[in-house]
Write a sequence for this structure.
């Protein structure tokens, strides 16, 4: 490391000399202070220290409670940062244990293992010459905190607790952690809080305690580093505002932010606007991947300087570690802030205020030098990034790309970490199951490319293990289709009610993606179950079109659907054996978010599976994804045909008089549901995102659907809430699905609502009827 100043002495020369004049030489008036040109001496001067620094941040694919694997990935990121000559490295939130530990955060073991991992990391030299900003839980004063732990040269400099918990949507941080509030100066005796370090840490490194609180680091070269943790960026009084006004130049945000369609742009705008308004260098780090649950953390680590993006990591990828670095000039931050008089006024005002409450104070670390001198050849290094001068264009995937890339990476993590030999998918030839097949195909494309780029890397090793190849070899799949044949097993399970159109589509799609595909008929199973029922009751149910009741009709449809689920699990267990391979297959479900919301699915049919990559994606987004993939990959042209076909369950007998060539069947989903998928999207967003009950939803849709009469809008709203409440119980057993849509009805943790309703909604529907009766349009209709 360089010192904060460098002293250089130059020999006397016409351009380097400094002259001093005295009255004794007659060169000036008596007592004059003017320079004496007759006498000269060589002066040494102190050169202004450098303000250039290289910083690093990262995406890490952490796994909840995989302490050894997590620590190894963290160490790798630190080594890469050093190779890039960075002197500061930022990691994701709770990276030592994994963000998704959930109720395991209530176990003391989780905290103990994190300290063990930190000891190991420092002992391995992770922080040697590198300021490391780690994320881990800390028990302080008997209270659990979500913390940033800043280390340097095997010493903990600061433990900085999180001040705002994320408790919305999928987040439940308040269940495990407490939001930190800085104590008053009187309660700490005028000093900062101290945290007593564990005995194993103290014995190893000779450090007994460490400052604990809302501090920032001030280095010997004047560099200042502060922390802002995930949710704090989203709050009205964000931490970065106070830090910036206190002169902090570098702010690190270690985050655990999961993917949601169309969310990334909002997240990026917050960081860009934070530094555009306050100036500064803002580093963002995030987990990337599935750490054991329904969410996928979508990475996109970045570095922003004064509102400009200078480094950005990919949002979706199959690599476990991705580090981005940037070399920045901190003088650019100081100049940017100085150019805004209002910033200076507010900063000066803050400096005069009293009662900071032990928070926001700088901790002087006079042995740390983070900047480097560009004139020092030994520190230049060919791997060091150049000073970032140009803005990077914002890399944001379109929603149709997000729909395939996010679930594809999520499935890869599940597959390689579960020990399974692949997937089994009931492939009907419709849009939903074809979307799942296409997502697996994209997974194979990503993994094959990464494996072929580095046959000795972690992705290639995982690929060999999953495909049951010799792990000591350098085998990698030659094409995505070759990998697809190893990992994806598809079966068209037809009955007498199925069409040749969907059977053909399923076969052509299976061939395109390389899956091990079968086409079977399950009529024998259906007939056998119905015969058992007839023997037991003396009755044989009939379809509605053949003289039966609606109850009989639904029962006959459901038995076909449920037998497909039974067949799927039989195939998943035995197909590896049939192919002479070991292991088991994970069964994939294919019910979309709109069908879950409406309850348009059979409980314990093919919607029941091990995983569902599209369970929180709308039908509209899925169709756009299929069209996108059909254009991007010409071999997948059958996807365009599938996307444009009317959705059909094919559970009733075909009526040749009403069947269309596109659908191949007379039964269509939208006719069965009594509403369109587009309308379901409106209902879903208003119910969940806008938090509307029946009445408020009706009021909003009166304006949005102005082309409909009030009574028509009322009828549609009532129909939706009736079927939603009638079928809500299905969400309690729904397959774990990739979280993608903000209006997902997943009952597990995201959409917490009852599953036993009064389906008549007596008060709510009565109010709607009253509004309809009093609406001017209603009076007009009566007069007409």
């Amino acid at each position: 490391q360089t010192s904060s100043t460098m002293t250089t002495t130059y020999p006397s020369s016409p351009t380097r000399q400094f002259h001093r004049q005295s009255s004794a030489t007659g060169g000036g008036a008596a007592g004059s202070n003017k320079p004496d040109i007759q006498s000269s001496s060589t002066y040494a001067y102190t050169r202004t220290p450098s303000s250039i620094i290289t910083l690093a941040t990262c995406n890490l694919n952490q796994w909840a409670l995989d302490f050894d694997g997590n620590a190894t990935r963290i160490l790798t990121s630190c080594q890469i940062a050093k190779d890039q000559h960075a002197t500061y490295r930022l990691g994701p939130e709770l990276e030592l244990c994994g963000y998704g530990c959930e109720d395991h955060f209530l176990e003391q073991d989780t905290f103990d293992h994190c300290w063990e991992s930190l000891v190991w990391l420092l002992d391995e030299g992770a922080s040697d010459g590198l300021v490391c900003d780690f994320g881990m839980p800390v028990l302080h004063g008997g209270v659990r905190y979500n913390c940033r732990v800043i280390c340097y040269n095997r010493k903990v400099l600061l433990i900085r607790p999180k001040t705002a918990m994320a408790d919305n949507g999928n987040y439940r941080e308040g269940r495990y952690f407490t939001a930190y509030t800085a104590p008053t100066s009187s309660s700490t005796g005028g000093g900062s809080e101290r945290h007593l370090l564990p005995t194993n840490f103290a014995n190893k490194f000779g450090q007994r305690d460490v400052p604990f609180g809302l501090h920032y680091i001030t280095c010997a070269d004047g560099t200042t580093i502060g922390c802002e943790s995930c949710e704090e960026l989203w709050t009205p009084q964000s931490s970065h505002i106070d830090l910036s006004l206190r002169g902090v130049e570098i702010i690190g945000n270690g985050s655990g932010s999961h993917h949601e369609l169309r969310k990334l742009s909002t997240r990026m705008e917050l960081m860009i606007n934070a530094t555009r308004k306050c100036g500064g260098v803002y580093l963002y780090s995030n987990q990337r991947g599935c750490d054991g649950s329904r969410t996928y953390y979508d990475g996109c680590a970045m570095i922003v300087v004064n509102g400009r993006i200078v480094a950005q990591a990919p949002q979706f990828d199959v690599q476990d570690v991705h580090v981005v670095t940037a070399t920045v000039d901190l003088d650019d931050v100081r100049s940017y802030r100085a150019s805004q008089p209002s910033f200076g006024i507010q900063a000066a005002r803050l400096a005069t205020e009293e009662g900071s409450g032990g928070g926001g104070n700088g901790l002087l670390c006079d042995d740390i030098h983070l900047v480097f001198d560009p004139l020092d050849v030994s520190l230049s290094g060919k791997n060091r990034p150049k000073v970032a001068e140009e803005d990077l264009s914002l890399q944001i995937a379109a929603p149709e790309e997000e729909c395939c890339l996010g679930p594809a990476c999520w499935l890869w993590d599940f597959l390689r970490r579960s020990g399974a030999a692949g997937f089994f998918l009931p492939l009907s030839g419709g849009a939903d199951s074809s979307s799942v097949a296409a997502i697996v195909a994209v997974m194979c494309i990503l993994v094959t490319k990464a494996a072929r780029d580095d046959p000795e890397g972690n992705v290639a090793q995982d690929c060999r293990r999953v495909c049951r190849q010799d792990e000591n070899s350098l085998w990698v799949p030659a094409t995505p289709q070759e990998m697809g044949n190893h990992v994806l097993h598809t079966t068209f399970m037809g009955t007498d009610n199925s069409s040749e159109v969907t059977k053909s589509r399923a076969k052509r799609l299976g061939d395109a993606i390389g899956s091990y595909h079968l086409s079977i008929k399950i009529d024998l199973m259906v007939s056998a179950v119905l015969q058992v029922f007839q023997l037991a009751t003396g009755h044989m149910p009939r379809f509605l079109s053949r003289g039966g009741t609606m109850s009989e009709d639904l029962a006959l449809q459901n038995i076909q659907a449920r037998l497909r689920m039974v067949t799927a699990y039989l195939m998943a267990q035995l197909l590896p054996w049939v192919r002479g391979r070991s292991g088991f297959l994970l069964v994939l479900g294919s019910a979309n978010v709109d069908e879950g919301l409406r309850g348009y699915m059979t409980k314990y049919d093919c919607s029941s599976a091990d995983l569902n990559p599209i369970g929180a994606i709308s039908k509209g987004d899925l169709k756009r994804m299929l069209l996108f993939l059909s254009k991007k990959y010409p071999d997948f042209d059958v996807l365009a045909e599938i996307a444009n076909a009317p959705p059909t369950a094919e559970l009733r007998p075909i009526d040749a008089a009403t069947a269309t060539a596109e659908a191949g069947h007379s039964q269509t989903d939208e006719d069965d549901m009594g509403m369109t998928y587009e309308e379901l999207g409106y209902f879903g967003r208003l119910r969940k995102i806008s938090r509307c009950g029946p009445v408020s939803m009706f009021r909003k849709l009166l304006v949005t659907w102005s082309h409909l009469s009030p009574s028509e809008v009322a009828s549609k709203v009532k129909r939706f809430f009736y079927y939603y409440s009638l079928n809500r119980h299905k969400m309690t057993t729904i397959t774990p699905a990739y979280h993608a849509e903000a209006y997902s009805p997943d009952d597990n943790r995201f959409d917490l609502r009852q599953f036993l309703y009064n389906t008549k909604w007596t008060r709510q529907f009565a109010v709607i009827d009253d509004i309809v009766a009093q609406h001017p349009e209603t009076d007009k209709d009566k007069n007409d």
In short: The chain is about 40% helix and 15% strand. The mean pLDDT is 87.
